[in-house]
């Protein structure tokens, strides 16, 4: 039996008390915080997204699961960041949910995963305007931005935000990664940006971008 099945199921069930207990038990058994996140928590949220689309779960149930997961994330987050302190901070990354969308769970987990991978993350939260994304990119000198949209109605806002960022002259190329429930590879191609199908994809893409920049020969 997969040792992460129990926390996976407790999140699916929206059982806050059991989720916290399972998280503490896994840590006590020596499981790495990043493994608990990647192999138990995130797959549970991915499954819930599928169940929601199939009407096997509904918003009130999803909210219970999200709250259960937030409690467990609060336990492992300091441990993940502690491990990240010893990692090489390759890039600064700006993350946020686009304007018109108040969903935060997926975006917050992406931020945690990026931090645990050694990135210096600025999380702008939800309902973020194009102006705020641009201002933060300039303030941080960030070359990577990851933005999410969980509603089909906020896809237009994402498109406008990407357009506005591309119109800005930063003096360097800004890599844009997009993801979220309604976002598809074809939509990302239409925008000319990177598509992230999962939270782990975002960290992988950011690492690839960072590595490519470091290895690219100077002219």
TrEMBL record:
Ranges of residues in domain B12-binding N-terminal: 1-88
SUPFAM superfamilies linked: Cobalamin (vitamin B12)-binding domain (SSF52242), Methionine synthase domain (SSF47644)
Keyword Endoplasmic reticulum: no
Keyword terms, alphabetized: Cobalt, Metal-binding
GO BP term (any one): tetrahydrofolate metabolic process
GO molecular function: cobalamin binding; metal ion binding; methionine synthase activity
Gene3D superfamilies documented for this protein: Cobalamin-binding domain (3.40.50.280), Methionine synthase domain (1.10.1240.10)
InterPro entries: Cbl-bd_cap, Cobalamin-bd, Cobalamin-bd_sf, Met_Synthase/Corrinoid, Meth_synthase_dom
GO cellular component, one term: cytosol
Domain of life (superkingdom): Bacteria
Residue ranges annotated for the B12-binding domain, each copy included: 90-219
PROSITE patterns according to UniProt: B12_BINDING (PS51332), B12_BINDING_NTER (PS51337)
Annotated PANTHER family: METHIONINE SYNTHASE
Protein name: B12 binding domain protein
